[in-house]
Specification:
By secondary structure, the chain is mainly alpha-helical. The longest helix is centred in the N-terminal third of the chain and has 23 residues. It is about 70% helix and about 0% strand. It has a single domain, classed as Ribonuclease iii, N-terminal Endonuclease Domain, Chain A, CATH 1.10.1520. The radius of gyration is 15 Å and the shape is globular. It contains seven helices and no strands.
């Protein structure tokens, strides 16, 4: 049976956790696990788009943690949060935005491809985009 756009949206809706604050999203371990795979996938697609050749890549936690900080969201996490946990938070936020239809796969790949020569800046730009959309009524940022 072919997958339709409607059936895709339905299963994504079922994935949405009950998060009522930005901090809940950033600290959600299940979102972080899915976000890890999603983040590596979208970055690989962005590199593929830019180079014209299939590319597989993993995003280093330092890149994501720095991007989260530069996007102004580090303060939404506890003070002694490790770099790895900060990266998990970025991944959770990025996949949450996709699940909630705040971003599309095509859009995030485009954002990342534009700045693929500087992955930290590429992810900072993506996180800022998500942060701005969350403020539009989904989940309020502090």
């Amino acid at each position: 049976m072919p997958v339709t756009e409607h059936s895709q949206e339905h299963w994504k809706t079922n994935l949405t956790p009950e998060c009522t604050s930005l901090r809940e999203i950033l600290e959600n371990r299940k979102l972080a696990a899915l976000g890890d795979a999603y983040t590596n996938f979208i970055f690989s697609l962005a590199l593929t788009k830019k180079s014209g050749e299939p590319t597989g890549s993993r995003v280093d936690s330092r890149i994501l943690a720095t991007a989260l900080r530069k996007a102004g969201l580090r303060g939404s996490l506890p003070s002694r949060t490790s770099r790895h946990t900060q990266a998990d938070a970025a991944e959770a936020l990025i996949v949450y935005a996709w699940i909630k239809n705040l971003t599309s796969l095509e859009e995030v790949v485009s954002i990342l491809a534009k700045r693929s020569d500087d992955p930290t800046e590429a992810f900072r730009s993506l996180i800022v985009t998500v942060k701005e959309r969350l403020q539009l009524g989904d989940v309020q940022t502090p």
